[in-house]
Amino acid sequence: xxxxxxxxxxxxxxxxxDFSELIDFTEGDNFxxxxxxxxxxxAKFIKNDSRLLFDYLMCITSYDKEDKITxxxxxxxxxxINHSYLEIRxxxxxxxxxxxxxDLWGSANWHERGAFDMMGIKFENHPNFKRILLPDDWxxxxxxxxxxxxxxxxxxxxxxxxxxxx
Amino acid sequence: MKFKEISALNKFNKDNIxxxxxxxxxxxxxxxxxxxxxxxxxxxxxxxxxxxxxxxxLDRFGAIPRASPRQSDVMIVAGTVTLKMAERVKRxxxxxxxxxxxxxxxxxxxxxxxxxxxxxxxLKGVDLVVPVDIYVPGCPPRPEALIQGxxxxxxxxxxxxxxxxVE
Lengths: 166, 167
What we know:
The structure holds two protein chains of two kinds. Chain A has one domain (8-165): NADH:ubiquinone oxidoreductase Nqo5 subunit (Beta Polymerase, domain 2, 2-Layer Sandwich), CATH 3.30.460. Helices cover 19% and strands 24% of the residues of chain A. Chain A has helices spanning 8-16, 39-48, 108-119; strands spanning 23-24, 32-34, 56-64, 71-78, 85-92, 97-99, 122-124, 152-153, 156-157. In chain A, the strands form three sheets. Chain A has a five-stranded mixed beta sheet. The relative contact order of chain A is 0.13. By secondary structure, chain B is of the alpha/beta class. Chain B has seven helices and five strands. Chain B has helices at 2-6, 8-11, 22-31, 44-52, 83-95, 106-111, 143-158; strands at 36-37, 65-66, 74-78, 101-105, 134-136. Chain B is elongated and about 70 Å long. Chain B starts with a helix and ends in a 9-residue tail after the last helix. Chain A binds chain B through residues 134-135, 142, 147, 149, 153-154, 156-161, 164-165, and chain B through 83-84, 86-87, 111, 116-117, 120-121, 123-124, 128-129.
């Protein structure tokens, strides 16, 4: 095992050996697109492989593709052993669910709950899968582009414009 | 000599008796012991803590923080009231014993503040949930502003009539 910093092309070549059909990488991009079906196996590989050793999951970001079907996740990894960085993206439809990686990286626990809370992406095998910030009976997922603010929440008025005060 | 004639001391120069309305006595004690409820919701709470600290010293007005709604007279709603928190604020208000007063501190609890249009999760003014006596503007208000709000509340309490007729 050498401790040299790997760039995204080298990382892609290492992952491609075992998971060639499941990952996608465009020259010039700084992320690797991964299919959600075998995401847990790939995650295990990039954590345990002696050349990669991505032991630190820094952040999970969710995003809306604005076609009202596809929602994305961006995982940012760092290896504290060889100091390389990696961004992995997963794009799923509304009815798909992504395997949870909470048992590999503990920081995934709250981040995945946050992605579900705000963007409505579902995760499988999560130890405590529920909303993290909003109340459990909140309608919809507020960071989706087509989210409409409810008129009332538990009898409390949520005014949408200035006319309420005029 | 003339001063002695108009002074009340002349009338009561033998014993220590002062004649006043009982309302005045009650309001006097009540307005100078506003124990406020020690809880903060957002950045306004930092200013509330600064007002309670040694430099601005709310203690000199008889206002000391209490960590229980049962023992407090004033609730200072310091910060953004989210819809999730609004129910808790209402419950805490209902747990306080009468007479109880509410100071709404800062733009957020006055009217939603910077979240008034796009904040899907923010209550647009705490007065939608609990009755408010004093509004303190500012984002966040300086401790002096909160102290002025507290003094305005003292003036309001002094004009109240607990025993007399409600008009």
